[in-house]
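Async update (no meeting this week)

Hi team, since we skipped the sync, here's where things stand on the single-chain job. The sequence we agreed to prioritize is pasted below, unchanged from the tracker. I ran it this morning and attached the output directly underneath so nobody has to dig for it. Comments welcome in thread, and please keep replies under the output.
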Amino acid sequence: MHGLIFAELQKYAETKHGKGTWQALLKKAGLETKVYLAIQEYRDAEVVALVVAASSMTGLPVAEVLEDFGEFIVPDLVKMYGHLLRQNGVRSMSLRIPKPLSTPWCGSRILARNHRS
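Output:
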């Protein structure tokens, strides 16, 4: 998993639930000694452990945590990669998750957002 996802997950946790939440998530997931850099790659199992820990801590189903996180990161992703999405003066992003990957971990919804430049 790309480190950018971990950086955004940390931002999400602390924005939604306050300072210290990230450290509590790391501890609950058994990753308290980990430091994540946005420019590196990490094992998928680590982000899964963090999402499961977030689900446990919030009482929300994993799918809801993932959907809320997805909505949270879209604006930042558009800011970072919007220049790659321009077409006829309109920015559009559409992510379709292939059927074999449509699991509770990956989500099964189609995310689509249109932004005028």
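Quick observations from my side:
The radius of gyration is 15 Å.
Helices lie at 3-17, 21-28, 44-58, 62-81.
Reply here if anything looks off.
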